Each structure stands twice: as structure tokens, then as C-alpha cells.
Predict the structure.
Amino acid sequence: MSKHLFNEFEPVSSKQWKQQIQYELKGADYNETLAWESPEGIKVKPFYHADENQLKFESPISNGFKIIQNIYVYDISKSNERAVETINRGAESIRFTLESDTASLEKLMENLPKENIIYYFNVLFLSADFINKAASFASQNNYKIIVLQDAIGQLSKDGNWFESLEKDFNQLQSAAALNFPFLSCKIDLYQNAGANIIQQLGYAMAHVNEYFNRIEGISTPITFEVSVGTNYFFEIAKLRALRLLFDSLAKEYQYTFDCHIIVTPTKRNKTLFDYNVNMLRTTTECMSAILGGADGISNLAYDALYHKDNEFGDRISRNQLLVLKHESYFNQVHNPADGAYYIESLTEQLAEKALDLFKDIEANGGLITQLIVGTIQRKINESAQKEQDLFDSGKEVLLGTNKYPNKNDKMAKELELFPFVKTNARKTLITPIIEKRLAEKTEQERLSLEA
């Protein structure tokens, strides 16, 4: 068979395609009928063509993703047993969440494999001594450990620093001298609170730029903890734009390391009623994460809103990723989204708009200043309300909740966790950024009507 099978066909230019489309529209306006604009102001065309889309950049990309299992450490022995079990069942990384710096790493890591696996320590405290302990333990025992420490994330979510700005950054500066990966940017908070994609990217860059400005001698990759929603191609482009923007920013500081991206499906569109639909949502969200170049993916269990951690929910969420990786072969092609003109165009537009937002934040004092005066919170709330209005009016659909709800579905007796926003009146330095799901009001109304 000829290697030039299609040479006998004349190439069709984008102009010719448009002319044919216009003819088929029979007088209807091309832009009004087929082109549309996203809530972020991203212009989407009905088709993309090589003669209109010249690749202006090379997207940095990861070399494959790891399946992450989250384990909240209450009991050291039980957490260790669970880690061993989940690795045997297909998990490729473990993210331990630690409440105290007194946890015994020797007991927690006992009998855990060392080859080809990353252990993340998500710490709910700030301690350079603990980071030093983790670094020494990793070196002496040949474990690959990454500490996830985010003082700015603490301020954003809790409303207060761990201690104070000065003391927190003194601790982080001490940790930077260890040449050990210790720093994260928990930007999943922005998405779960209702920020649009441009805001997520712009705030992410302002977030990490605070660390670049305030901590000297950072020498190890910074981890971004990201949430993705169901806007499939946009979420792929978001992750690609994040790497592109980080790469550009890091070079301004003469840093040569890449970022490390951990992705989790968003909670914002997850529902209490008709909860099995959550599996469909998380499947496409995990696909976006893979194609966007995530280094690690921690899936969200279908029942995470209302059930405590349980073996069945964990197994289903882990198996979703195992199927995508080993049966759908999503890990077999390097950078599969590369060269897709639509995704390249989205990546470029998202990156450009996010860069403009980042520059505006920096011109007005930076992220921390903008958090203290409340600008970031106000902008996120405005974006969240726009999305909430679309949901309330039925223009944004959550199947089984505001479209085709099952009236016989009862959930009041299933709740092991409180699935709604909790309020805790207390004194804080700033107004915290609050995560809230779109379906909360609708669900509370339905629960109140249950007999």
C-alpha cells in the first residue's frame, strides 16, 4: 500500500471549509449559529484547521500518571495496614494526611514497598523539624517522599496562618535549605469554591509567586494539588496551561525544575441524590486529568459526600483508574492531546487570560494582599454565583438532581457525614474561601421533605 495514500486528494483550506459551511447554513449567521463563548470569555470555533493554528509553544508534559490512594492517619497501625492492602490492589502512590508531627514514620511506613512508588505526606501543621525528619527518613530508607506543605493554602481555607505570616515563612525558609520536596499549592480550593478556569490558573500563578518571592533557594519541584470538573476539553487545556505558565514563571527566577501535578475530581458538581452518576462524572474528569498530563490522580469515591471512608467506595474509585490505565490504555501514548488544534487553541487562550489576571494581582500587591483585603474571595463568590444561577435555572444540568430526578430516591438515613457547608463563627484574619457544591440547596429541600 502506498505511503502517500491521500496525495491524490487536493488539500482543503479553512476558507473553503467555511464557505461550504456557510452554504449549508442556508443564510444563517455563521458566528451566531456555530461559534460560542465560554463563561471565562474563551471563544470556541466550530472547527480548527492547520492553516489557522500554528503551534506557538511546546507544552511541557508528564511521563505518565500514578494512581493515588488517600489515607487519613488516625491510627498508625491501621493506616499502615490499609496502605499495604491498597498497594496490593493497584494503588501506585499513597497520600497520607497527618494531623501531628509526632507520628512515627517507622511504624507508618513499615513493610511498604520502595520501588516505583511515591509517598505524599499531606501535613495539617507547619514544622520544619518534621520536614527534616521526613527527609532523613526518606534518605536512610530509600523511600521517595514528597511533603505537601502550603501555608498560603492554610490561610485561604482556614482564614488564619498556622502562626503568623512571618513565623510561617521562617519555617518554610528553614525547610528550603533541606533540598527536599516540601512545598505545595493547594489550588483545588479555588475550583471547589466556584472559581472559573481563568481564575484558577491566575490564582495558581499568584500563589506560587508568593513562595518564589518570599523563600530563597527553592531547589525542588513544587506540587500543585488541582481539582478538575466535567468541561472535558477545557480541563485538559487547563492542566496543560498550568504547566506552561509555571514553566514560564519559574524561568523568570532562573529555576529549572518542573512542577508536579496531583489531580482530584471536583466536589462542586457531585450530588447526594442519584449518587451513582458521580461515577460517570469522575470517569470523564479522570480522563481529562490523564490527557492533561497529571503526574498523579486521586479519584473521588462516588459516595464520598455522605459515607465515611470505606473499602467498597475506595475499590470502585481505584478500579476506575485501573481500567483507564490498563484496559483503556490511556498510559500507552505519550502526550496524546498534543497537536489537537482545538486543545492547543484553548491552552493558548487560557494561558494568555490567566497571565493577564496574574499580572493584575501582582500590580495590586500580590495574592496575600488580595486575600487580606478580600478581593480574591469576592471574585470567586461572583463566579460561583453565576454558575449557581445557571444551575438554579436549569441551564447547567446535573443529571438526577435538576434534570430527571428520581422522586423516590431517599437519602436521609444514608448520611454518615454532613454533606453541606458548615459554619463555624470565630475570629479570623481573613474571610476564608468556602467550598460549596452546586446542588446543596436543592438537596436540603429534598431531605426536608423525606418522611
